Amino acid sequence: QVQLVESGGGLVHPGGSLRLSCVVSGFNFRGYWIYGARQAPGKGREWVSDISADGTRINYRDSVKGRFTITRDNANNILYLQINDLKPEDSGVYYCGNTPEYDRGYWGQGTQVSVAS
Question: From CA 19, how far away is CA 73, in angstroms rounded?
Fold first, then answer.
């Protein structure tokens, strides 16, 4: 059974930090690029970052560059997203998945990030 379980979200003040985790089971984690996405209330899901199977290639959307860091632990099947200097516009549900297409492959249920004063 494939599972991607996100955690680490919460309510933080602007400028705060969170470390999101995505624990994966049921497929060959180390053989896949892993994708991070988010969805704000009333908006569509948007890509945030991705990381190659071996962790050597990484991409970020422009609005998070310099604040977000994606890493992976292939020994333990975990993806991490360190998010710093949070802004209200970063609020939303954060997801991890093994495909860039949100209606395909496998995606987790998400973890809520809320940024407010």
Answer: 14
